[in-house]
Amino acid sequence: MPHAEDAKPVVAGSANCLIVDDEPSVRRSLARMLQAQGFNCLEACTGREGLKVLDQTGEIPLIISDMRMPELDGMGFLEAVRQKFPDSSVIMLSGISETTTAVDCLHLGAADFLLKPISLSELQARVARALEKRALVLQNRFYQQHLERQVQEQAQRIQDLFLQGVQMLARALEAKDAYTRGHSIRVSRYAVATAARLGFAGPGLDGIRLGGELHDIGKIGTREAVLHKPSSLTADEFRQITEHPALGERMLSPLAHESPDVLRIVRSHHERLDGRGFPDGLRGEKIPIEARIVAVADSFDAMTTRRPYRDARPPADALGELRRVAGTQLDPNAVEAFVAAFPDPGELPVSA
Ligand SMILES: [Fe+2]
Q1: How far apart are CA 116 and CA 95, in angstroms?
Q2: If you average pLDDT over residues 9-36, what whole number do you get?
Q3: Residues 85-90, mean pLDDT to the nearest whole number
Q4: One domain, residues 221 and 305
């Protein structure tokens, strides 16, 4: 019966080979051969001892293990090593010339299978091959992970550039029009404060911020003469106005995967609770909550800024109007959250 004292004690640090065999003479001769090749070897006399060594050292690149050992045999040891240290290369040794054992070991993930007695040249060749294979596997994984990260970073960069582009477009759209200058930023601020009151946080709140900024981006496709008309609109002109949510959604379709909430805001910010809004005539909770929040912010900012056809309304009046249309046009919860977020009309409107 072997004893732990038979094995070379574990030295923390730079071991790169573990030899597991219950015959001290085999261990020693293997260790000598491998040390001559520059390996720093640890030894264990059973599978269980081998696992204890690995628990202390962590992964060891090369493991050479006998098949027949007391306590935990080679097959059990191999299974445990594959589970805990899948990147270790394990070469199995056996005195039995059974091909089925070799096949079983290879199925379990052994790097190779050697029959005793082992010649130095055979050992050298098999060890070199096992380690080369291990290096290739590790290298492959590194490239794969590195590549995945690079692809992710590039996708993020592309998205950022796209966003910068549409944000600049939104600013450019407002810059042409004194009446709507700063509108999208103010709507975004109102909507974020309202959404925070309703429990939005993290990415959900970021979506509201961006959706608020971009909600009218589709107006880029509406003729200026219609956008800035000081008198009431004809039916055809009104139809042109109603096209901007769907056009905006199409423009922002590259965000569909990462930020679907932004697209929902852009498409549905003119829906009304009573179903009389556009473009889809959605009712009540069928209207995405993010869009209901932005609709409150949009309405308030529209009322409190001067337009070609009317003056700005005082903020206190506009708050009263929000409450008046809560339940028919606007979501009452979103209106109350807005009022709670901005309790002092004297501090309104916010600056862009
Ligand atoms: Fe709009």
Answers
A1: 5
A2: 83
A3: 94
A4: yes
